[in-house]
What we know:
- The complex is a heterodimer.
- By secondary structure, chain A is mainly alpha-helical.
- Chain A has one domain: ABC transporter involved in vitamin B12 uptake, BtuC, CATH 1.10.3470.
- Chain A has helices at residues 7-38, 45-63, 67-94, 100-121, 146-168, 170-180, 182-186, 192-217, 224-239, 244-264, 269-284, and strands spanning 136-137, 144-145.
- In chain A, strands 1-2 form a two-stranded antiparallel ribbon.
- In chain A, β1 and β2 (144-145) form a beta hairpin.
- Chain A is globular, with a radius of gyration of 19 Å.
- Chain B is an alpha/beta fold.
- Chain B has a domain at 1-77 and 188-239: Rossmann fold, CATH 3.40.50.300.
- Chain B has twelve helices and ten strands.
- In chain B, α3 (93-100) runs parallel beside α7 (137-149).
- The chains are: A mainly alpha, B alpha/beta.
- Chain A binds chain B through residues 170, 173-174, 176-177, 180-181, 183-192, 295, 297, and chain B through 48, 50, 69-71, 74-75, 79-80, 82, 86-91, 95-96, 98-100, 102-103, 107, 133, 147, 151.
Amino acid sequence: MLEIPNLDIFIQLLINGILFGTMYGIAAIGLSLIFGTMRIMFLAQGSMIILFAYVSYWFFELLGLDPYISLFLIVLIGLGFGAGIYHGLFKGAAAQEDKNISLLIAVGLMFLVENLMTVFWTADPRTISTGYTSLVFRPMGIGIPFNRLMGFIIALFATTGVLLFLKKTYIGIAVRAAAEDMEAVTLLGINPHRVNSVVFAIGTGLAGIAGVELATIYPFDPFFGFIFVLKAMIALAIGGIGNVFGALLGGIILGLLESLSSFFIGGGWSDAVSYGVFLLILMFRPEGLMVRSVKKA
Amino acid sequence: MLEIQGLNVFYGDIQAVWDVSLHVDEGSIVALVGANGAGKSTLLRAISGITSAKEGEILFSGKSLKKLPPQDIVKMGISHVPEGRRLFSNLTVYENLKLGAYIPRSRRSVTQSIERAYDLFPVLKNRMNQKAGALSGGEQQMLAIARAMMSRPMILMLDEPSLGLSPMLVKTMFELIMNLNRQKVTILLVEQNIHQALKIADQAYVLENGKIAMTGKGKELLSDPEVQKAYIGTRWSKS
């Protein structure tokens, strides 16, 4: 069943994979940052993305707000919401030696958000359909859907923003330091709760971006979040944890993998291939596929 | 300046510090010496708030530190260079130093503080853009001390600053500690290098199994026959 596609189709597959993969990538950046200081996988990240997809859907349906305008609002809401989640739910557990408590809170939050979304918006798939939803650029005959291109550009901006924040601001440097050694960070007078709430804010802000992107290009329902966070974890496994750009690249590689495998092997196979790759990486390169050496603080 | 009264500290179920009382005078060098596992590091960790004390009191200029989290204790003017240096190895030398001045009071003068650190340790200036993990052991120890000094502390607590250094660097390290002390920084020093530590200490405490076994002026303890026998080795065995 392996057929040789013509070049146009092949390029189309690559472009779609890259553009869709950036969404996994920015979700993975959030996971990576939160893991850095909290030492847990924030499993509710996917449900947050879907939640923000619904929020942008509501902004569009109820207020007529274009998703690329409500994006700014949603990122702000996401930043505040993330800090709120930390202070409300994780603050007490974060100080505990046993990280399973924080992990269980994340799982509980995921189910809570999933079920609340089902109550508010039902389980029917939704999508935002604007005047430019079917707009496709065709430079040199290669079709580039406008919304996917926008998503890609926004993701690049967001990644650059996060990188600059971690490099240039005082609290950003503290976040990187805390990922290495939280105790040493507090010995310099830095409040660990502040560092943790900052990573939650950024992680949830990025979830807002991914949510808006998703709402503009793909039908979603409340239970899509769990699959999404799994994909983000695969992106992390490929890109290596603790590396912002690696996470984005991991997402893009995963997007390519899915796009190519669904064409060459068959639509139903793309998820199986992703999870298969995930397991293989965890078995043979648990530190991440693109990490050159294990860095130990 | 720093007053510890009847302190009991536990590590899980094991008691590491037993009824320890000591005081550190302003401007002095106080050494805590003793064998491995005597409870020296635990005592420092209790003062800086990483480990909480079960009973007893820790007073700094009359105020209790016992219920404060580590970040607030730093703000009061106590800086702790922990065992094993605990540098951020993926951050540059410059970033490590910069973080040392995180607290609001010292952040205002971060540029001068970094210049001062480079004056004190010129080698750090040459390596400012290298990752801390790429430094040699001696350079890492210098960076750890320089980082702790960035918050402009009144008391500097040093946990085994000479550990893993060559004999020549050990000498430099102790000269440096005396030099910092001359700049009005009170020093609380934990050391296994008992001979060197007692030589520079105004006051010293010998810890054994979490209890204070002996105390006195550094030079007095140095010539004390019991200390000689237990920790330093007899004179004739050296020659």
